[in-house]
Amino acid sequence: MGLFTPRYLKDARLLSEGASKTLHHHRDILRPDQVVTLETLIASYDKAITRRNEAEISALSSDLEADFSRAIPARPHASWAENIEAIVVAVVLAIGFQAYFLKPFKIPTGSMQPTLFGMTGHPSSSPLPSLLIRAVDFVRLGRSHLDLKANAREEVLGLNEKTSLNFFTFTEVITTEGRHKIFAPRDVLVRDFGIRPGRIYDAGDTIVHGYVQAGDQVFVDRMTYQFRNPERSDVFVFQTTGIRRIEMNLDPAMGSQFYIKRLAGLPGDTLRIDPPRLFIDGQIATAKPFQRVMSCKNGYRGYSNGSDAGPPFPYLGSPEETFSVPAHAFFALGDNSFNSSDSRYWGVVPERNVIGRGFFVYWPFSDRWGFIR
């Protein structure tokens, strides 16, 4: 089709091609006389195109469209079918994109604070802000304001956590007076608001008042490690499959889950922690992320041999103890060293478990939004 071909000829050729394809696709459901009629009409139309007779082409175009409409009725709910097809294609593309390029990941705990935050609860005695401010807080900061009081004397019998749409987590607090649905995970309600089985609230007592801060949502880069090996000080995500001490504490129904930590030791490295410093092969760790943790400033507390008020860890549990990272494995540490379940407790991360590199906080829009340091 040449550059200077008239528009009516271009349109006519496209219509002829479309008519021929449509007839081919529906030939098996048409009567023989309909097939003959449509084939004859397409042949006449093609002759008119060859003669470049614009008036004849225009008249036959109308006949062609009318005869095809009569012979091949429109499919019922065609628009719905097309929309569903588009949605299915979009979902498949999204799944494929996650599988090979970027995977969204929600920070589950505070083990990487203050670099990355998990979900935290903040009790308060101040009145709740206006509805508009609460809406803005949720969109911008991922902050959910809560306020629940006991209507009568009631005792907490249990807490049942549920997740909706694989994103929204809430907890049913079961009491002697019924059930209260609170938009927060179970561990946040227990740890930060003190709601636990056996606790009794009198009528008018506050069960929960304050806000819950959503954990950071990050993108995990799944491509980089296809072209280079993980590097010391990377923030990386891995599966817990086969890591015995983690799997012992998992609900079997949950199966494998994911952790995010700082990669502290590569195969062959020898590590030692003399609080607040981390030593790698006998030298103080020099990478900026390690230096930031060891500075004990801006929320960082340095590296430790044990958790807050807890016993020494099985690995690197004293300033004298060393650990050599075996082949095909990595040693992981949390930036919140005093409150992190990491390789000091459950051992190394097998190389095969690595999912990718955490590299960007996409929500909430806090001061941590952007590339992960």
Structure, described:
With 373 residues, the chain is of the alpha+beta class. The protein has 3 domains: 7-71, Substrate Binding Domain Of Dnak, Chain:A, Domain 2 (Up-down Bundle); 120-213; 217-371, Ribbon (Umud Fragment, subunit A), CATH 2.10.109.10. The chain has 10 helices and 19 strands. It has helices at 7-26, 32-51, 54-71, 78-100, 131-141, 186-193, 224-227, 244-247, 288-294, 343-346, and strands at residues 102-106, 120-123, 143-149, 154-164, 168-175, 178-182, 200-201, 206-213, 217-221, 235-239, 258-265, 270-274, 277-280, 283-284, 322-324, 329-333, 349-350, 354-363, 370-371. Strands 1, 9, 10, 11, 16, 17, 18 and 19 form an 8-stranded antiparallel beta sheet that branches. Helix 2 runs antiparallel to helix 3. The longest helix has 23 residues, at 78-100. The chain is elongated. 27% of the residues are buried. The mean pLDDT is 87.
